[in-house]
# Entry
Amino acid sequence: TTPDLITDFELFEADRGEIILTSKRKDRVRALVKLKEVQNTYLSIGRFIDPQLVNQIDSIKEQSRAYKNLYEKRKQIEANFYIVFILMSLLILLISILVGLLFADNFINPITNLIKTSNKIKSGNLSVRVPQISSKDEMSLLIKTFNEMTKMLKIQKSELKKQERNAAWLDIAKRIAHEIKNPLTPIQLSAEYLKNKLKNKKDKIYANTIIKKVDVIESMVNEFSNFAKLPKPKFSIIKLNKLCYDLVLFYKKSNNKITFTTKNLNKDLYAKIDELQFSMVISNLIKNSIESITENKNVRFNGKIDLSIYLKKSNIYVKINDNGGGLPRNYQKNKILEPYVTTKKSGTGLGLAIVQKIVHEHNGKFYIDNIKNGTSALIEIPKT
Ligand SMILES: Nc1ncnc2c1ncn2[C@@H]1O[C@H](COP(=O)(O)OP(=O)(O)O)[C@@H](O)[C@H]1O
Ligand SMILES: [Mg+2]
# Structure
Protein backbone atom coordinates (compact mmCIF):
# COMPACT_ATOMS: atom_id res chain seq x y z
CA THR A 1 0.00 0.00 0.00
CA THR A 2 1.16 3.49 -0.74
CA PRO A 3 2.23 5.45 2.27
CA ASP A 4 0.33 8.59 3.07
CA LEU A 5 1.95 11.70 1.73
CA ILE A 6 3.33 14.03 4.32
CA THR A 7 1.84 17.48 3.94
CA ASP A 8 3.69 20.76 4.29
CA PHE A 9 1.54 21.58 7.24
CA GLU A 10 2.68 18.43 9.01
CA LEU A 11 6.30 19.31 8.29
CA PHE A 12 5.70 22.77 9.64
CA GLU A 13 4.26 21.33 12.79
CA ALA A 14 7.25 18.99 13.16
CA ASP A 15 9.57 22.05 12.79
CA ARG A 16 8.13 23.33 16.05
CA GLY A 17 9.46 20.16 17.74
CA GLU A 18 6.32 18.14 17.97
CA ILE A 19 5.74 14.48 17.18
CA ILE A 20 3.03 14.22 14.60
CA LEU A 21 0.82 11.23 13.85
CA THR A 22 0.50 11.41 10.11
CA SER A 23 -1.52 8.38 8.98
CA LYS A 24 -5.20 8.91 8.21
CA ARG A 25 -5.72 5.23 7.45
CA LYS A 26 -7.19 2.94 10.03
CA ASP A 27 -4.73 0.06 9.62
CA ARG A 28 -1.51 1.76 10.64
CA VAL A 29 0.16 4.35 12.88
CA ARG A 30 2.87 6.69 11.66
CA ALA A 31 4.79 9.39 13.44
CA LEU A 32 6.93 12.21 12.13
CA VAL A 33 9.65 13.90 14.12
CA LYS A 34 12.30 16.53 13.14
CA LEU A 35 15.86 15.45 13.82
CA LYS A 36 17.64 18.23 15.74
CA GLU A 37 21.19 17.26 14.92
CA VAL A 38 20.77 17.08 11.16
CA GLN A 39 19.55 20.06 9.15
CA ASN A 40 16.28 19.68 7.22
CA THR A 41 15.97 16.00 8.04
CA TYR A 42 12.80 14.31 9.40
CA LEU A 43 12.30 10.82 10.67
CA SER A 44 9.02 9.09 9.76
CA ILE A 45 8.32 5.73 11.42
CA GLY A 46 5.26 3.59 10.84
CA ARG A 47 3.83 0.23 11.59
CA PHE A 48 0.71 -1.69 10.68
CA ILE A 49 -1.85 -2.49 13.36
CA ASP A 50 -5.06 -4.63 13.53
CA PRO A 51 -7.86 -2.37 12.29
CA GLN A 52 -10.13 -3.94 14.92
CA LEU A 53 -7.93 -2.56 17.68
CA VAL A 54 -8.24 0.87 16.15
CA ASN A 55 -11.98 0.45 16.06
CA GLN A 56 -12.01 -0.58 19.70
CA ILE A 57 -9.89 2.37 20.66
CA ASP A 58 -12.29 4.60 18.79
CA SER A 59 -15.28 2.99 20.45
CA ILE A 60 -13.71 3.34 23.90
CA LYS A 61 -12.98 6.98 23.14
CA GLU A 62 -16.59 7.39 22.04
CA GLN A 63 -17.90 5.70 25.19
CA SER A 64 -15.70 7.69 27.46
CA ARG A 65 -16.90 10.87 25.81
CA ALA A 66 -20.47 9.82 26.26
CA TYR A 67 -19.76 9.00 29.90
CA LYS A 68 -18.14 12.35 30.44
CA ASN A 69 -21.06 13.96 28.80
CA LEU A 70 -23.49 12.13 31.02
CA TYR A 71 -21.41 12.85 34.11
CA GLU A 72 -21.60 16.51 33.33
CA LYS A 73 -25.33 16.26 32.77
CA ARG A 74 -25.86 14.41 36.10
CA LYS A 75 -26.51 17.61 38.05
CA GLN A 76 -29.08 18.67 35.52
CA ILE A 77 -30.85 15.28 35.67
CA GLU A 78 -30.84 15.37 39.46
CA ALA A 79 -32.32 18.85 39.45
CA ASN A 80 -34.99 17.76 36.99
CA PHE A 81 -35.80 14.79 39.16
CA TYR A 82 -36.22 16.99 42.25
CA ILE A 83 -38.51 19.34 40.38
CA VAL A 84 -40.69 16.47 39.16
CA PHE A 85 -40.71 15.01 42.67
CA ILE A 86 -41.81 18.30 44.24
CA LEU A 87 -44.48 18.84 41.59
CA MET A 88 -45.85 15.32 42.13
CA SER A 89 -45.93 15.87 45.88
CA LEU A 90 -47.79 19.13 45.47
CA LEU A 91 -50.30 17.46 43.16
CA ILE A 92 -50.93 14.65 45.65
CA LEU A 93 -51.28 17.19 48.44
CA LEU A 94 -53.81 19.18 46.41
CA ILE A 95 -55.85 16.08 45.60
CA SER A 96 -55.79 15.07 49.28
CA ILE A 97 -57.03 18.48 50.33
CA LEU A 98 -59.83 18.38 47.77
CA VAL A 99 -60.90 14.87 48.77
CA GLY A 100 -60.67 15.87 52.43
CA LEU A 101 -62.85 18.91 51.85
CA LEU A 102 -65.39 16.78 50.00
CA PHE A 103 -65.57 14.29 52.87
CA ALA A 104 -65.61 17.01 55.46
CA ASP A 105 -68.56 18.57 53.66
CA ASN A 106 -70.41 15.25 53.72
CA PHE A 107 -69.66 14.94 57.39
CA ILE A 108 -70.29 18.50 58.46
CA ASN A 109 -73.54 19.06 56.53
CA PRO A 110 -75.67 16.60 58.54
CA ILE A 111 -74.30 18.01 61.80
CA THR A 112 -75.11 21.54 60.70
CA ASN A 113 -78.60 20.35 59.80
CA LEU A 114 -78.96 18.71 63.21
CA ILE A 115 -77.97 21.92 64.96
CA LYS A 116 -80.31 24.02 62.84
CA THR A 117 -83.21 21.62 63.45
CA SER A 118 -82.49 21.50 67.20
CA ASN A 119 -82.69 25.27 67.33
CA LYS A 120 -86.03 25.26 65.53
CA ILE A 121 -87.33 22.61 67.92
CA LYS A 122 -86.10 24.69 70.84
CA SER A 123 -88.18 27.60 69.59
CA GLY A 124 -91.27 25.37 69.58
CA ASN A 125 -91.58 24.09 66.02
CA LEU A 126 -91.96 20.31 66.38
CA SER A 127 -92.85 19.67 62.74
CA VAL A 128 -89.31 20.11 61.44
CA ARG A 129 -87.23 17.09 60.44
CA VAL A 130 -83.52 16.68 59.75
CA PRO A 131 -83.08 15.70 56.06
CA GLN A 132 -81.98 12.09 55.93
CA ILE A 133 -78.64 11.27 54.25
CA SER A 134 -78.12 8.41 51.84
CA SER A 135 -75.30 6.64 53.71
CA LYS A 136 -76.02 3.80 56.12
CA ASP A 137 -73.75 4.77 59.02
CA GLU A 138 -73.96 6.11 62.57
CA MET A 139 -74.83 9.55 61.25
CA SER A 140 -77.92 8.36 59.39
CA LEU A 141 -78.93 6.33 62.45
CA LEU A 142 -78.51 9.42 64.60
CA ILE A 143 -80.68 11.45 62.22
CA LYS A 144 -83.32 8.71 62.16
CA THR A 145 -83.41 8.50 65.96
CA PHE A 146 -83.46 12.27 66.24
CA ASN A 147 -86.43 12.53 63.87
CA GLU A 148 -88.28 9.76 65.70
CA MET A 149 -87.67 11.53 68.99
CA THR A 150 -89.05 14.76 67.56
CA LYS A 151 -92.11 12.92 66.29
CA MET A 152 -92.66 11.35 69.72
CA LEU A 153 -92.23 14.73 71.34
CA LYS A 154 -94.88 16.20 69.06
CA ILE A 155 -97.31 13.37 69.86
CA GLN A 156 -96.64 13.69 73.58
CA LYS A 157 -97.11 17.44 73.43
CA SER A 158 -100.49 17.15 71.74
CA GLU A 159 -101.42 14.37 74.17
CA LEU A 160 -100.50 16.66 77.02
CA LYS A 161 -102.58 19.47 75.56
CA LYS A 162 -105.53 17.09 75.26
CA GLN A 163 -105.06 15.96 78.85
CA GLU A 164 -104.86 19.54 80.04
CA ARG A 165 -108.06 20.37 78.19
CA ASN A 166 -109.77 17.29 79.62
CA ALA A 167 -108.59 18.15 83.10
CA ALA A 168 -110.01 21.66 82.73
CA TRP A 169 -113.29 20.24 81.49
CA LEU A 170 -113.34 17.70 84.30
CA ASP A 171 -112.98 20.47 86.81
CA ILE A 172 -115.87 22.40 85.28
CA ALA A 173 -117.96 19.22 85.04
CA LYS A 174 -117.35 18.46 88.69
CA ARG A 175 -118.44 21.93 89.80
CA ILE A 176 -121.49 22.01 87.56
CA ALA A 177 -122.50 18.50 88.65
CA HIS A 178 -122.22 19.54 92.27
CA GLU A 179 -124.24 22.74 91.76
CA ILE A 180 -126.98 20.93 89.83
CA LYS A 181 -127.19 17.97 92.15
CA ASN A 182 -127.94 20.05 95.26
CA PRO A 183 -131.40 21.32 94.26
CA LEU A 184 -132.42 18.06 92.54
CA THR A 185 -133.53 16.21 95.69
CA PRO A 186 -135.84 19.01 96.92
CA ILE A 187 -137.34 19.31 93.40
CA GLN A 188 -137.91 15.56 93.29
CA LEU A 189 -139.46 15.49 96.77
CA SER A 190 -141.72 18.46 96.01
CA ALA A 191 -142.91 16.87 92.77
CA GLU A 192 -143.69 13.63 94.60
CA TYR A 193 -145.62 15.62 97.19
CA LEU A 194 -147.63 17.43 94.52
CA LYS A 195 -148.30 14.20 92.65
CA ASN A 196 -149.83 12.70 95.78
CA LYS A 197 -151.84 15.84 96.57
CA LEU A 198 -153.26 16.35 93.07
CA LYS A 199 -156.60 14.72 92.38
CA ASN A 200 -156.85 15.49 88.65
CA LYS A 201 -155.32 12.75 86.48
CA LYS A 202 -153.95 15.27 83.96
CA ASP A 203 -152.24 17.20 86.73
CA LYS A 204 -150.73 13.98 88.06
CA ILE A 205 -149.16 13.38 84.61
CA TYR A 206 -147.54 16.85 84.74
CA ALA A 207 -146.07 16.09 88.12
CA ASN A 208 -144.87 12.75 86.84
CA THR A 209 -143.11 14.46 83.92
CA ILE A 210 -141.19 16.62 86.41
CA ILE A 211 -140.17 13.53 88.37
CA LYS A 212 -139.01 11.67 85.22
CA LYS A 213 -137.05 14.59 83.79
CA VAL A 214 -135.36 15.19 87.12
CA ASP A 215 -134.35 11.53 87.01
CA VAL A 216 -132.77 12.08 83.59
CA ILE A 217 -130.91 15.13 84.86
CA GLU A 218 -129.72 13.19 87.88
CA SER A 219 -128.35 10.31 85.83
CA MET A 220 -126.59 12.74 83.50
CA VAL A 221 -125.07 14.59 86.41
CA ASN A 222 -124.03 11.29 87.93
CA GLU A 223 -122.29 10.36 84.72
CA PHE A 224 -120.36 13.63 84.86
CA SER A 225 -119.27 13.17 88.42
CA ASN A 226 -118.52 9.48 87.80
CA PHE A 227 -116.14 10.44 85.05
CA ALA A 228 -114.61 13.19 87.10
CA LYS A 229 -113.92 11.08 90.13
CA LEU A 230 -113.23 7.75 88.47
CA PRO A 231 -111.00 6.07 91.08
CA LYS A 232 -108.18 3.60 90.38
CA PRO A 233 -109.65 0.13 89.83
CA LYS A 234 -109.74 -2.32 92.72
CA PHE A 235 -108.93 -5.65 91.09
CA SER A 236 -110.38 -8.99 92.11
CA ILE A 237 -111.01 -12.27 90.33
CA ILE A 238 -114.48 -12.10 88.82
CA LYS A 239 -116.53 -14.42 86.60
CA LEU A 240 -116.61 -12.19 83.55
CA ASN A 241 -119.21 -14.32 81.75
CA LYS A 242 -121.65 -13.92 84.66
CA LEU A 243 -121.08 -10.18 84.91
CA CYS A 244 -121.90 -9.81 81.20
CA TYR A 245 -124.82 -12.20 81.32
CA ASP A 246 -126.47 -10.34 84.21
CA LEU A 247 -126.16 -7.03 82.40
CA VAL A 248 -127.58 -8.43 79.16
CA LEU A 249 -130.49 -9.83 81.15
CA PHE A 250 -131.06 -6.48 82.84
CA TYR A 251 -131.17 -4.50 79.57
CA LYS A 252 -133.22 -7.22 77.86
CA LYS A 253 -136.04 -6.68 80.37
CA SER A 254 -136.47 -2.99 79.62
CA ASN A 255 -135.91 -3.33 75.83
CA ASN A 256 -138.09 -6.23 74.79
CA LYS A 257 -138.24 -5.10 71.15
CA ILE A 258 -134.50 -5.70 70.72
CA THR A 259 -133.16 -9.23 70.16
CA PHE A 260 -130.22 -9.90 72.49
CA THR A 261 -127.92 -12.80 71.68
CA THR A 262 -124.83 -14.00 73.50
CA LYS A 263 -121.92 -16.30 72.70
CA ASN A 264 -119.76 -18.24 75.17
CA LEU A 265 -121.43 -16.76 78.25
CA ASN A 266 -122.33 -20.19 79.67
CA LYS A 267 -118.65 -21.09 80.18
CA ASP A 268 -116.99 -19.74 83.32
CA LEU A 269 -114.27 -17.23 82.51
CA TYR A 270 -112.33 -15.68 85.35
CA ALA A 271 -110.76 -12.26 84.91
CA LYS A 272 -108.90 -9.92 87.22
CA ILE A 273 -111.00 -6.76 87.01
CA ASP A 274 -112.73 -4.06 89.02
CA GLU A 275 -116.29 -5.41 89.05
CA LEU A 276 -118.08 -2.07 89.39
CA GLN A 277 -116.01 -0.29 86.78
CA PHE A 278 -116.20 -3.15 84.31
CA SER A 279 -119.98 -3.25 84.73
CA MET A 280 -119.95 0.43 83.83
CA VAL A 281 -117.97 -0.36 80.67
CA ILE A 282 -120.35 -3.09 79.49
CA SER A 283 -123.41 -1.01 80.47
CA ASN A 284 -122.18 2.03 78.54
CA LEU A 285 -121.58 -0.07 75.44
CA ILE A 286 -124.94 -1.84 75.63
CA LYS A 287 -126.65 1.51 76.26
CA ASN A 288 -124.98 3.01 73.17
CA SER A 289 -126.09 0.02 71.09
CA ILE A 290 -129.68 0.31 72.38
CA GLU A 291 -129.68 4.06 71.66
CA SER A 292 -128.31 3.52 68.17
CA ILE A 293 -131.17 1.11 67.47
CA THR A 294 -133.95 3.20 69.01
CA GLU A 295 -132.71 6.31 67.17
CA ASN A 296 -132.34 4.50 63.87
CA LYS A 297 -135.84 4.45 62.36
CA ASN A 298 -135.00 1.81 59.75
CA VAL A 299 -134.20 -0.91 62.25
CA ARG A 300 -136.34 0.19 65.16
CA PHE A 301 -138.38 -3.02 65.20
CA ASN A 302 -135.64 -5.37 64.15
CA GLY A 303 -132.86 -4.35 66.51
CA LYS A 304 -130.16 -6.87 67.34
CA ILE A 305 -127.39 -6.77 69.93
CA ASP A 306 -124.87 -9.57 70.26
CA LEU A 307 -122.42 -9.93 73.13
CA SER A 308 -119.63 -12.50 72.92
CA ILE A 309 -116.58 -13.39 74.97
CA TYR A 310 -113.56 -15.24 73.70
CA LEU A 311 -109.92 -15.96 74.48
CA LYS A 312 -107.12 -15.47 72.02
CA LYS A 313 -103.43 -15.88 72.84
CA SER A 314 -102.99 -14.23 76.25
CA ASN A 315 -105.98 -11.91 75.98
CA ILE A 316 -109.65 -11.90 76.88
CA TYR A 317 -112.01 -10.23 74.41
CA VAL A 318 -115.51 -8.90 74.94
CA LYS A 319 -117.27 -7.93 71.74
CA ILE A 320 -120.57 -6.09 71.44
CA ASN A 321 -122.11 -5.85 67.97
CA ASP A 322 -125.30 -4.05 67.00
CA ASN A 323 -127.24 -3.24 63.84
CA GLY A 324 -127.98 0.39 64.78
CA GLY A 325 -126.58 1.89 61.58
CA GLY A 326 -122.98 2.48 62.62
CA LEU A 327 -120.94 5.39 63.91
CA PRO A 328 -121.76 8.96 62.86
CA ARG A 329 -120.09 9.60 59.50
CA ASN A 330 -118.99 13.17 60.11
CA TYR A 331 -116.82 12.30 63.11
CA GLN A 332 -113.35 10.79 63.14
CA LYS A 333 -113.25 7.43 64.87
CA ASN A 334 -111.01 8.53 67.74
CA LYS A 335 -112.88 11.81 68.06
CA ILE A 336 -116.02 10.09 69.40
CA LEU A 337 -113.88 8.55 72.16
CA GLU A 338 -113.14 12.01 73.53
CA PRO A 339 -115.24 13.31 76.41
CA TYR A 340 -118.21 15.59 75.61
CA VAL A 341 -118.43 14.44 71.99
CA THR A 342 -122.01 13.36 71.37
CA THR A 343 -124.58 13.30 68.58
CA LYS A 344 -127.47 12.83 70.98
CA LYS A 345 -129.88 15.52 72.20
CA SER A 346 -129.42 14.66 75.86
CA GLY A 347 -126.10 12.85 75.56
CA THR A 348 -123.09 13.70 77.67
CA GLY A 349 -120.46 12.28 75.34
CA LEU A 350 -118.83 10.64 78.34
CA GLY A 351 -119.85 7.01 77.78
CA LEU A 352 -117.02 5.98 75.48
CA ALA A 353 -114.51 8.21 77.27
CA ILE A 354 -115.29 6.31 80.49
CA VAL A 355 -115.09 2.98 78.65
CA GLN A 356 -111.69 3.82 77.24
CA LYS A 357 -110.34 5.16 80.50
CA ILE A 358 -111.39 2.09 82.49
CA VAL A 359 -110.16 -0.36 79.84
CA HIS A 360 -106.79 1.42 79.81
CA GLU A 361 -106.64 1.25 83.59
CA HIS A 362 -107.08 -2.51 83.17
CA ASN A 363 -104.01 -2.53 80.90
CA GLY A 364 -106.30 -3.25 77.99
CA LYS A 365 -107.25 -1.77 74.66
CA PHE A 366 -110.58 -0.56 73.31
CA TYR A 367 -111.60 -0.56 69.65
CA ILE A 368 -114.81 0.65 68.03
CA ASP A 369 -115.57 0.36 64.35
CA ASN A 370 -118.31 0.05 61.77
CA ILE A 371 -119.59 -3.32 60.65
CA LYS A 372 -122.35 -4.18 58.22
CA ASN A 373 -125.47 -2.17 59.30
CA GLY A 374 -123.98 -1.28 62.64
CA THR A 375 -121.16 -0.93 65.11
CA SER A 376 -118.73 -3.32 66.74
CA ALA A 377 -117.09 -2.45 70.06
CA LEU A 378 -114.21 -4.62 71.23
CA ILE A 379 -112.54 -4.75 74.63
CA GLU A 380 -109.18 -6.48 74.98
CA ILE A 381 -107.73 -7.15 78.42
CA PRO A 382 -104.79 -9.33 79.38
CA LYS A 383 -105.62 -12.78 80.77
CA THR A 384 -104.47 -13.24 84.36
N1 LIG B 1 -123.09 1.55 69.08
C1 LIG B 1 -123.08 2.76 68.49
N2 LIG B 1 -123.67 2.96 67.28
C2 LIG B 1 -123.66 4.15 66.68
N3 LIG B 1 -123.07 5.24 67.20
C3 LIG B 1 -122.46 5.13 68.39
C4 LIG B 1 -122.41 3.90 69.09
N4 LIG B 1 -121.70 4.10 70.23
C5 LIG B 1 -121.34 5.39 70.23
N5 LIG B 1 -121.79 6.03 69.14
C6 LIG B 1 -121.57 7.44 68.78
O1 LIG B 1 -120.56 7.97 69.62
C7 LIG B 1 -121.03 9.11 70.31
C8 LIG B 1 -120.40 9.15 71.69
O2 LIG B 1 -120.87 8.12 72.50
P1 LIG B 1 -120.75 8.25 74.07
O3 LIG B 1 -119.35 8.61 74.40
O4 LIG B 1 -121.29 7.01 74.68
O5 LIG B 1 -121.63 9.50 74.39
P2 LIG B 1 -123.21 9.62 74.35
O6 LIG B 1 -123.77 8.24 74.35
O7 LIG B 1 -123.56 10.39 75.57
O8 LIG B 1 -123.52 10.37 73.10
C9 LIG B 1 -122.51 8.94 70.34
O9 LIG B 1 -123.16 10.18 70.46
C10 LIG B 1 -122.81 8.25 69.02
O10 LIG B 1 -122.90 9.20 67.99
MG1 LIG C 1 -123.25 6.71 75.57
